User: Fold this.
Amino acid sequence: MLPPLFVSSLSKYCKVQEMGYAGVIANPASGAELNMIMYLPVTIAWPYPVKRWFHWTGSSPANNVDIGLMTRDGVRVFSTGATAQGTASVPQYISGPILIPPGEFYLALCISNGTSFRITASNSGNALRQGGILGESGTSIPAVMTPAAFTTAIIPIFGFTMTESGY
Assistant:
């Protein structure tokens, strides 16, 4: 089986997806993800050559975004570092080549502005916690996570891709 072009918070490779979503929200008003790091369990079945990381910006992108990957033991594998958000209402891509080995990881996202997402999925906070999502206060992805219970019901669309351009 060939790896997919994209692995995201809404893809079948993210364990939270198994819990289902109550709906998709464009330009959510909630700022629940403000200064919170989200950790979503993700399973990679093949060596995956990441070229870029992405998230969907909202109507008022501001401040910074940091996207990365953690081991299941909570150790950072990769982080894009704080990156200024770009144009409103489009996917934003951040270069960050890395070869991810097969295994189980946490897809990590930290953003410092609660109105920065264009499209998000929603479900109850309880359902997302049952799906294994964790959270932590912070303004960047740490070297080692100190996770706590996830407190919001909104999941931004973010992830990584093996494409070098387009989309």
Q: What stands out?
A: The helical segments are 125-130.
